[in-house]
Structures are given as C-alpha cells and as structure tokens.
Write a structure and sequence with these properties.
mainly beta, Jelly Rolls, 7-stranded antiparallel beta sheet, 5 helices, globular
Amino acid sequence: MKKSRITCIASLLLIGHFWNPPAQAQGLQNLHRITASVFNSHVEYHQINIPKGKEVTLADLTGPGKVTYWYITDNEEGKWYPGLVLKVFWDDETEPSILVPLSDFFGAIGGRTIDYQSAPMQINHLCYMCYLPMPFSKRARFVLANDGDRDFSQNVAYGIDYEQGQEYAEESSRLHCAWHRSNPTKDALHTLLEVRGHGQYIGNFLQVHSNYGGWWGEGDTIFDVDGTTITHTPGTEDEYGACWGFGHPYSYLYSGYLLDDKGDHRMYRWYLANPVRFEKSLRVEIQNQHWDNGQTPGRDDYISVAFWYQAGPHATIALPPFAERTAPSRADKYRQ
C-alpha cells in the first residue's frame, strides 16, 4: 500500500512536469509568478499605404522574447481587404512561418467579420485579437503585403505586446499558420495541414460553402500522426463542438459555429488541452460528406486556416495567389 502510494505520487509529479494545462487555467495559475522577463509593447496608429505588389513592416522586435498578444484594426468597418497578406518571420529566416490573408488569420474568412470570443483568438467590435504565445530567440518580424488587385490605403491601428528575457534564447518552438482552399474538394477530402517535423497542431478555422439542401456536415476529421491514421470524430459538428447538427451559431472557449448564411458555414476548433503532437509528420484532413439516406461524397468549397507549433522556424505552406483565393465558388449545384 505504501509503495503504490509513493508510485502514484511520483507519477503525478511526472505528469505535472510534462503536461501543459489549458491556456486559460495555466495563465490564471501562474499569474502570480514573477519572472526575469521584461514587458515591452509596439503600438502604432496611422495611415498605411501599400501599393499592389508591395509590403510594409509592421514591427521588427528584438529577442530573445515571446509575443503574448497582438491586435489590429482599420477603418473599413469590418470588411478587410482580402488582398492583405500577413507574413511573420522568426529570427533570421528569409521565408515566413506565418503566411495567410490577414483577416483569415483572425477567422474573418474572406474579410467578412463576425464577432466571437475564444480562448486564443477574438473579434470584438472591429478589434481583431490574438493571444497565442509566439516565442522567438533573435527577431520577430511582422510584415503586411498586398498581393491584391488594387492599392491599399487605410487608417490602421495595431499593438504587439511581448516579453524579453534570456529564458527564450533556447526555446525552439515557433508558431506556424497556413491557408488552404479546396474549390471544390477532390475525392471528397479537404486537407487542412500536411507538414513534416516535430511539433503540435493546435487548431483551425474552417469555412464551407455548400449548395446541398440537406445535411452537408457528415465528414469525419482524420489525423495521420507519424504514419498512423486516427479518425478523431464521426461528423463535422462533433469536431467543432456540437452534436446532431449545429442547431444555432455559438462561440465558446475551444469551439464555435459562427455562420449559417446562404450555404456558407464558418466554424473553429482549438486543441489547447489536447494538442495533436507529432514527432515526424502530420496530415489533417476532413471528409466532405453529405447525408442522403446514407453518407454520400460531396464537392463543396472548403477554406481553412491551420495553426501549429513546430521546432524551429520553417517556411510555411505556399499561399495561392489572390485571384485563386477570391475566385467564385465552384461547389457543385444540387436540385433543391
């Protein structure tokens, strides 16, 4: 009895050492801890002009450090120009580890804003906010590019909070983010992420356009972790925080269903307490299946933004050009 109790205590101590609690709980539990890091912030508010094909640097931060929060807004009143592309470079890398349309990074797919609140990301009254921690050892460079069909000129406000401390000099984890569209899906599958290396997948935004008049979300989410295939949920709504259909829009800490409008459906899922960890490779797919007296394959239009941490700064997945990103939906037509 005494031996098993000691073993149990030792196991709990090991779990406590290796297990990272959810972001919200972790922040509250450690809020009292005073560290050697020093707070800093980069804030700007002015007119930003970016001609077609050009880019501007929003901030170039000096490390070692960790971005703890950043927000951005402009005076377009909730309709971001979809030609704006966010690039984030870690350390001295020449290729960005984050390469996505600016609005889509915050879940405003295609520039269409919907207010929501989740643990790491929020949109509140035209304020686009990210709380995902972003460590870096030397530099963190935030760049805004214009690959669209017109010049951009707006009043923009943004702020980046970050810590500077020697403890981040040896931290190898870097945030990555990638955008993907299947217009329409091929073989009834949409790939959210396919990556090699060592890291952990922490979530995504997903927008689906379907012309199907019935239940469109019968598809499973499938993880291929280091060559092992795992079916994670038996339906789209299960993956994004609901069961037996979505029922109504909602936004919660880890999951949300934000949009149901003329065949457009927007949702998000965060794996904060249960990140999908991989040693060598990860592929994340979702099936495009309808329900018609059984599961039937679909050819709908899927757009996703995937977030993951990976050891070291790596060039992310290539971003399709503006014309392809904003092309009209080629989802199949169905008789209603």
